[in-house]
Amino acid sequence: MSDAIRYADEPSLGVDEFVDVLRRSTLAERRPIDDRGRIARMLDRADIRLCARDAAGLLVGVSRALTDFAYCRYLTDLAVDAVWQRRGIGRELIRRTHALAGPGTQLILLAAPKAMSYYPHVGLTRSERAFTIERR
Fold first, then answer.
1. What's the pLDDT score for residue 81?
2. Among residues 5, 12, 45, 132, which is most buried (max CB within 10 A)?
3. What contacts 128, CB < 8 A, 6 or more positions away?
């Protein structure tokens, strides 16, 4: 992990900056980035918007989560700029998101197909107990 990275929960994270890092991470492929209103709601209604910024202030990673701060934490987005990947930023965003949500919370995450091998590498356990109803 680079010492030049600053981490902070940023409740006022803007749509443009969020979409930009989604694009630079490839997560934009699976997010409604052309629907600014929907992205704004996604940000406004998140409980945690943990940002990783380089020394110049560029957003290089983000962890967006919904939580009750007591029992569960749904990690909705984990995005790290492709240029900054493999430096421990994603792992640190997960660790700090857990710390913010509380140690008694359980992480719930739906992995992108390309990230299926990443999450076990950073300490997450695969679950066969999840169910979903797909969005329309």
1. 97
2. 5
3. none
